[in-house]
Design brief:
Largest sheet: 5 strands, mixed
Helix content: 40-55%
Distance between the termini: 151 Å
Order of helices and strands: HHEEEEE
Shape: rod-shaped
Radius of gyration: 47 Å
Number of strands: 5
Strand content: 15-25%
Number of domains: 1
Number of helices: 2
Length: 197
């Protein structure tokens, strides 16, 4: 049979009380530590959200800046493409004016109509200049005129006489004027070929 003395029970009770206090103290410390970790985690989460928002805003700003920079490059590029197309077309016009037979451009059905100061745009013709990316046809308006030299004989549109033009030379200025638009602006380019016989 077990017998306990009063003193051993008091010691045991004290040990139990101190163990309980130590357990309570450890529990309190654990609770404080857990609460501290929760607060730290919450602060880190909020901080992370703010950092991500700032980073996303910064990336958006950089993206918009690059987009604007890219869009600023497009109009000059379109202008350059259109200028090259019109220069190429006018090269064709110049070659055409140089190779057309003399009798063909001086007759009434010529592509180069006699210049009229009353209505210089009367003989405007729409012509295709080329195609833009995507297949859109770019057009312009060409006006072809012929202007006789003042020293031509009256039969050839001039006011010359046999005294001023004894060789009966005939000189014509073939003028091709191309009108085209880039955006809202209108541009004009011309080529002139002098033909003499």
């Amino acid at each position: 049979m077990l017998t306990f003395s009063r003193q051993s029970l008091i010691i045991t009770n004290r040990r139990t009380n101190s163990a309980l206090r130590a357990l309570e103290s450890a529990t309190m410390k654990l609770h404080q530590h857990t609460t501290c970790e929760r607060q730290t985690f919450t602060q880190k989460s909020g901080s992370l959200l703010i950092e991500m928002t700032v980073a996303l805003g910064l990336l958006t700003a950089i993206g918009l800046f690059l987009l604007i920079g890219t869009l600023d490059l497009i109009p000059p590029r379109q202008w350059t493409i259109r200028q090259n197309m019109t220069d190429a077309y006018l090269t064709y016009e110049e070659a055409y004016a140089k190779r057309v037979p003399f009798d063909s451009f001086t007759n009434a059905s010529s592509d180069w109509h006699l210049f009229s100061s009353i209505d210089p745009d009367a003989d405007a013709t729409e012509v295709p200049l080329g195609k833009a990316p995507g297949g859109k046809v770019i057009t312009g308006t060409i006006i072809r005129t012929r202007i006789p030299d003042d020293n031509n004989l009256p039969a050839h549109g001039g006011t010359g006489t046999l005294a001023t033009n004894p060789a009966e030379m005939e000189t014509w200025k073939l003028l091709s004027v191309l009108t085209f638009n880039i955006g809202t602006k209108e541009y004009h380019k011309s080529r002139t070929v002098i033909r003499t016989r």
